[in-house]
Amino acid sequence: MLDPRSEIYPTIEYRPIQPSDLEVLENIHLALFPIRYEREFFLNVVNGNGIISWGAVDTSRSDDRRDELIGFVTTRMIAAQDSEIEDLFRYNSSRKGLTLLYILTLGVVESYRNLGIASSLVREVIKYAASISNCRGVYLHVISYNQPAISFYNKMLFKLVRRLPQFYYIRGQHYDSYLFVYYVNGGRSPCSPLAFLKMVVAKFWNKEDRSTPRWSRCKESTTLLVSQNNKRIVGGENTRCHV
User: Rounded distance, CA 52 to CA 106, Å?
Assistant: First the structure.
């Protein structure tokens, strides 16, 4: 356990998650999250099968655990049109082929909290997303009662764009989800003046269908928009969740 009063801080380095991290990665997830993930999920993470990940290690350790994970973030690249926020990009005439980077899990072991490790991991995600020319943002879900996570993503300048009622079903209880987005490569909330202007021009020339949202209802980038789609159901304590 690190002593927060100590002036000696660990040397944290970041690297891709690798096959040798499998057992530790599973154990950390088990300790941090109220749900169980399938073994297949962890195998996909460590082998890079459709999942992009980063791990944090403490290289200042003097023992043989200097390359052991003490933090991680796992992500998946998805098509924007397959996400819950596809409608936020309808103003973009070149939206075909746009992608988003979705954060699946993010965690730091308790003894390494409050050292900026989670922030650094998220910055790695944002940097990677920005390097993909057709990627327009990083997004994720946060369960409604997780105030520390909500405060964290606000601090990281993510935009709260949507509230998903009863998105989670955990141990017989429904919970809402908040959806956060960090825009990259010109992606932006449709509430911004430039995006709104593009939307008006697109409707005039291309006669957009009637399903286009009424932007007058969205007055601020933090307005909560309710959606009934893509609920995530997690059963009882021993039920596993597919990601």
Answer: 12
